[in-house]
């Protein structure tokens, strides 16, 4: 997963895999979704990101299922 913020255009780009993009769908005026050949989400583009998100509060949390935690 790769997250890129383009400050000059206030655009946030979240890329989930390396598959080729075959289609882009507009969800609304600020959100685009890129799809791969299987129809899976490849990436999400958020225009005007500062007004839609709190970029300074970014965090990543990993939650392990209880049954898996005991085997770690």
List the helices and strands and how they pair.
Layout: E1 2-6, E2 11-15, E3 23-28, E4 31-35, E5 41-47, H1 49-52, H2 66-69
Antiparallel strand pairs: 1-2, 2-5, 3-4, 4-5
Overview of the structural elements:
The protein has 72 residues and is mainly β. The chain has one domain. It has helices at residues 49-52, 66-69; strands at 2-6, 11-15, 23-28, 31-35, 41-47. A five-stranded antiparallel beta sheet has the order 1-2-5-4-3. A hairpin with a 2-residue loop joins strand 3 (23-28) and strand 4. The protein starts with a strand and ends with a helix. The mean pLDDT is 87. This is DUF2283 domain-containing protein. InterPro entries: DUF2283. It comes from Microcystis aeruginosa NIES-3807.
DSSP E strands, number: 5
**Given the C-alpha coordinates, what overall shape results?**
flat
Question: Order of SSEs, N→C?
Answer: EEEEEHH
Show unreliable segments: none
How many distinct helices? 2
Taken together, the total number of domains comes to 1
Helix content: 10-25%
Largest sheet: 5 strands, antiparallel
Distance between the termini: 24 Å
The Rg value, from CA coordinates, equals: 15 Å
Summing up helix and strand content along with how strands pair, one would put the structural category as mainly beta
